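Quality-control log, excerpt.
Job 1 of 2 completed; input and output follow.
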Amino acid sequence: MVGFGVIGLGMGRNRARLIKETAGADLKVVCDLHGDLAEEVAQELETDCVINMEHVFARDDVDVVMVMTPSGKHAQVGIEAAKAGKHVITTKPMDVSTEACDRLIAACEDAGVLCGVDYQSRYVDGNVKVATAIREGWLGKMILGEVRFKWFRSDDYFLHDDGWRGTWDMDGGGSLANQGAHLLDVLSWFMGDPVSVYGEIDIVNHEIETEDIGLAILNFENGAKGTILGTTTFPQSVYFSAEVHGTEGGILLHDVLNGEMTVYGKGLQEKLDSVENSVHSIVEDVVNAVTRGTPLSVDGREGRRTVALLEAVYQSAREGKPLKFK
């Protein structure tokens, strides 16, 4: 059994439940600065709780620490966990800057522990099929990859929990960095790194530091194009999608969180049906990595790519011109 500790019980509460449901995983302790919340989750899941993360690091029965704090603290907490000899998994994005990501990667390498990022879309059957189709060339020469979401977030959402969301220091951006991080990861997974990026961001409907609407155009080395659209200003949350097509076929992923899709192209559906997905969650992935030595779906260097892309989009938006992507 692989022992887990969870720090931060926003999304961390969901992940703590997932640990309890996963074979080979053992939830040892949950941690949150809000003691009432920590006790509530501990009672629900029949585990220990603490309010000081140092107590998590000190436990011999914790092998893996899942860092579910505000984004701007991921590297800080993860580095301390690595120094204590714990494998480190952060929620998305990895942190708010590539500099912070690099520090966390280095700390985990120095300690000889795993470093990974929890991007749940990587474990959805439909998304795995699409990534395989592109890798195997089933869509022909790639032409266009698009990701977009139109969601609603109220002003109360940004004020909640000391108002860290929608700030540069703690959220690392707005709609693209928070909700959109999943889609930027999916686009990088499908299409690879771009060679140039042009971005625009704006605040149109919220009292926040960062964007509530963001757009970007990407160019890839093979000549393919990419587009990104993300906003939290739509009247309600309606879609979270990705679309890819090439010279031989196309796939519309209506929702990357569940993999629902429509397929276009002769014989493509049959090929997609042949693809099997062997890992279905971040916890299962980590258990396999610890016990069998298999690679994580999103290790630290892979997780860093989304942050690097975000930085490029924001820099381009500030400078008002396309930028080369390194």
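Job 2 of 2 completed; input and output follow.
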Amino acid sequence: MSVDDEVLSIEEASVVLGRHYMTVYRYVKRRALEAIQVEGQWQILRSDLDKFVISQSARREKAQHSSDSRRTTDYHIELHRCLVDSDATGAFEVLRSAIDSGAGMEEVYLDILSPVLAQIGASWARGEIDISVEHRATAVATRLVGQLSQRCVRRGRHRGNVLIGGPAGERHSLALAMLGDLLRLHGWDVSDLGADTPANSFVHAASSIKNLVAVGVSVTSDESLASATELLSSLRRAIGDELPVLVGGSAIRDADHARSLGADHFAQGARGFIDFLDSLKTTPPSSTKDPSAKPEGGPKKAPKKKPKDGDAD
């Protein structure tokens, strides 16, 4: 140990790693991350934390380039079985095992949970399973996301506000919930309106949120395209042209399709949405209309004169 070696608490280490406090605590308890206990408090040397980061990166690199994808495949197989059987406890254990093995929340949501849900949806579309099975699987997945949301917390300065939701008639809100969690993990404050939000309610939210950076609209079914077009038109009239409005979801084919509906940008999945926000300036645009705001360049009040000695009060 060097005399200059920084000592971190579990909470401080969780901020550095971008992981939940309890995840780092489990690393320590399993001795995956070296730590010592002083007067009941765990202390982690910065040098040991750096070694842990290097080892985790090496493990992920090896898994990505290895021809043996058994680990990820096992997660998919086990999670698929649990969701189809409506086994919420077993499904949570599968995802927790992935997290304990080094998977971040983005990987858990986008590379494990989402593909399995898509697989179950495709099975229903082909007539291989009953709709009740798909509904039960979605209900379990919704509970899982609710349990995992507490891990999607990033401490420190927040980057601005983002509004997301689905247009009227849209029924799928789980993808929005996962997107909201991942945006929070990247430092954004998120207002999630959920699915099936009337255009006037969406506009009211967009017009009342301070420091709004972007608006995201999720469209997963062709039946919602007309209401999405109406929503985007209403949003543009209410919030002006500077605030970016993104559209994504399985019903949106490409960027041209998104623009034809009235959007500024196409978000290709949650990662596409996150990448777009990361490309923005950190200072949020002030494009939302504030009815109480006074126009720039208006008359200014003259400063009060400082009373002279002898003036009457």
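Post-run check on job 2. Residues 66-70, 283-313 have pLDDT under 50 and may be disordered.
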